[in-house]
Design goal:
This protein has a five-stranded antiparallel β-sheet, with no helix packed on it. By secondary structure, the chain is mostly beta strands. Strand 9 and strand 10 form a beta hairpin. It has two helices and 33 strands. The chain is globular and about 55 Å long.
Length: 465
């Protein structure tokens, strides 16, 4: 290259750049610059759960529904205390007419398995609208199913064995929900107005589980407890009013989020939260998020779905599908230190729930094992009875109210039987849903049972007349 070429080329580039800059500054533009709003300057990737905060792009759509003037509450996943057992004393029918319990109302919902929560005559449900490509936290009347409000925001979700899988949590005037892509939304329970939103992927390094989010939020006092299972935290507590971080638990083993939900536990005078991560189980202090104990003695290789069943005296019953069976852990406390040991294991043939967590009542454990039969175990793991091959429930849900079990088969047949350690005593059975994949958790309040299949939510009158 000549001396002239080495000198002339840089000068030519500089002159061209100067001309381009001048033309840009003096050219007209139709674009209007907008002020940056914290939390809203993320790309559409946030819709896909890869970061950002899609919740902030939403709006409230008011309906003409009105709250029911009815008592009763099912405020979160598995109802009061996350037990799967109603604390109400409403008299319930022990037999049904030929047509089954009366359907009070029914509404169409997006494909999925998200279950309802009930408080102050309102039914709350996380839903997905495929046509509008929107996630929606909906509030409908317990009286007639008419929509009171919905908070909807853009979210890109592809069908993957349905979309929704979670149950909202409501306390006071706040309702919190998690959508399929790990967006957490908190709104006013009466109006649907947004309080705050956070994406667990961008905020805490969470990974959206293979079948989308299955974890249900836990409200504990004035805090919301969540399990990102990400690079930043195993569990976090955020302020219910503002969403501001209160504490976070380290994740030294790098466990990822599962479909299991957090369960509260009391031991040694200390309140804690128990969570099944991808690689084991941990206990976290409720006051400051400290990791009190963990164990790798229980993990499921494919999908951890059922939540821990906390029993008395530091015992925790864990179960799963995919041939995982179940295990009973014993947590001991001495001088503020916690130790974990395994009391016994059960093979899948005895008990291993693929989807729904078991319930404990009167010293017995009730649940649906992997072969679809309903069973009763004692707390030592001995099988008391099974419903047998003639009464199959598949991946359907169940709950307990007034000593009665309501169990829904995955094809929509509702069975009523006693929660008794003696035998399976079927009282009534009726086809209440005509759809498929009736997998979503049920809810109960004021003698009303709310159930769903893949695309429809219905309310049944099960009170005594």
């Amino acid at each position: 290259m000549s001396i002239f070429s080495r000198w002339f080329a840089p000068v030519l580039v500089a002159v061209a750049a100067a001309v381009a800059l001048l033309l840009w500054r003096n050219s007209p533009s139709d674009e209007t610059l907008a002020a940056r709003v914290p939390g809203t300057d993320h790309s559409p990737a946030g819709e896909a759960g890869q970061g950002g905060n899609a919740v902030l792009a939403g709006k409230v759509v008011a309906g003409d529904g009105q709250p029911a003037a009815l008592p009763g509450s099912w405020p979160e996943f598995r109802g009061p205390g996350r037990s799967g057992i109603s604390s109400e004393t409403t008299a319930l029918a022990r037999t049904w007419p030929a047509g089954g319990p009366r359907e009070l109302w029914g509404i169409d919902v997006g494909e999925g398995y998200g279950g309802p929560a009930i408080q102050d005559g309102r039914v709350f449900l996380i839903d997905y609208d495929r046509d509008r490509r929107q996630s929606a936290l909906r509030c409908v009347s317990l009286a007639d199913g008419r929509e009171i409000w919905r908070y909807a925001y853009p979210l890109a979700v592809k069908r993957n064995h349905g979309m929704t899988r979670t149950v909202p949590a409501v306390a006071g005037d706040a309702v919190v929900a998690i959508d399929p892509k790990c967006n957490v939304v908190c709104v006013d329970a009466k109006t649907g107005g947004l309080r705050w939103g956070v994406n667990l992927v961008s905020a805490y390094g969470a990974t959206v589980p293979p079948w989308y989010t299955g974890q249900c939020p836990l409200i504990s006092g004035d805090r919301v407890i969540l399990a990102p299972g990400g690079s930043e935290a195993l569990l976090v507590a955020v302020d219910l009013a503002t969403g501001k971080l209160q504490w976070k638990t380290p994740n030294p083993r790098g466990w990822k989020m599962t479909h299991s939900s957090i369960m509260p536990m009391e031991l040694g005078g200390r309140r804690m939260f128990v969570y099944c991560g991808s690689g084991g189980v941990a206990g976290v202090a409720a006051d400051d998020g400290a990791l009190l104990w963990d164990t790798t003695d229980w993990k499921i290789s494919i999908a951890t779905v059922p939540s821990p069943l906390v029993l008395g005296d530091g015992r925790i019953f864990l179960c799963g599908g995919y041939n995982a069976g179940s295990v009973m852990l014993q947590i001991n406390e001495a001088a503020g230190k916690f130790a974990v040991r395994t009391l016994f294991r059960l093979p899948a043939e005895t008990f291993g729930a693929t989807q729904h967590s078991p319930a404990s009542l009167g010293g017995q454990i009730y649940g649906i094992r992997a072969n679809g039969q309903f069973v009763c175990l004692d707390e030592q793991g001995k099988l008391r009875w099974s419903s047998g091959p003639a009464a199959q429930f598949g991946l359907g849900p169940f709950l307990v109210a007034s000593g009665l079990v309501y169990a829904l088969s995955e094809n929509g047949a509702l069975s009523l039987f006693e929660a008794s350690p003696d035998k399976f005593n079927l009282l009534a059975r009726s086809q209440v849903l005509q759809g498929r994949e009736c997998w979503g958790p049920m809810a109960f309040a004021a003698g009303r049972l709310v159930v769903r299949d893949l695309t429809r939510l219905v309310c049944l009158d099960v009170a005594a007349r």
